[in-house]
Amino acid sequence: MAHPNLLAVFVAALATFAIGGPWYRFFGPKRDRIGAAPDQPGKGHPALVFGTAYLLSLVAVYGLGLLIGAAPTVGRGFHVGAMTGLFFVATSFGINYAFDARKLKTWFIDAGYHVLQFIAFGVVLGLFG
């Protein structure tokens, strides 16, 4: 099994913030208006929250890199990232949202972010391929 380029993994994990910041700056107020804001916002120290997000993104990128395989290309990275984001991540969110009776609009916002996130992960891995 070919392991992903570790530099690519560290760089790709930054997509979490590069996409998430603008995405939620734009869609965050819409989520709040439809009642999707967390019950207790701001519970965690920002360093802990962002550090945890980056660490978990590293794990996700590394796993995606294993799925993409040896000598990744941008096209393959895009394809596997999109399929993973859509068919695994977004649907898993959908299951949780259904049981929590959360609004479909909220799912589109959160799932859409994660699909884009995984596409970016795959593209970056492909660029380093």
Name some characteristics of this structure:
mainly alpha; 129 residues; single chain
Helix content: over 70%
Q: What is the tally of helical segments?
A: 5
User: Biggest sheet, in brief?
Assistant: none
Cα radius of gyration in angstroms: 15 Å
Number of strands: 0
**Topology as H/E string?**
HHHHH
| Beta-strand residue percentage | under 5%
Shape by Cα distribution: globular
Contiguous low-pLDDT stretches (5 residues minimum) are none
SSE-based structural type? mainly alpha
Distance between the ends: 15 Å
| Overall average residue pLDDT | 92
What's the domain count?
1
Describe this structure in words.
By secondary structure, the protein is mainly alpha-helical. The longest helix has 26 residues, at 74-99. Helix 1 (6-12) runs antiparallel to helix 5 and helix 2 (15-33) runs antiparallel to helix 5. The chain has one domain. It has helices at residues 6-12, 15-33, 46-68, 74-99, 104-128. It starts with 5 loop residues before the first helix and ends with a helix. Helix content is 78%, strand content 0%. The mean pLDDT is 92. The radius of gyration is 15 Å and the shape is globular.
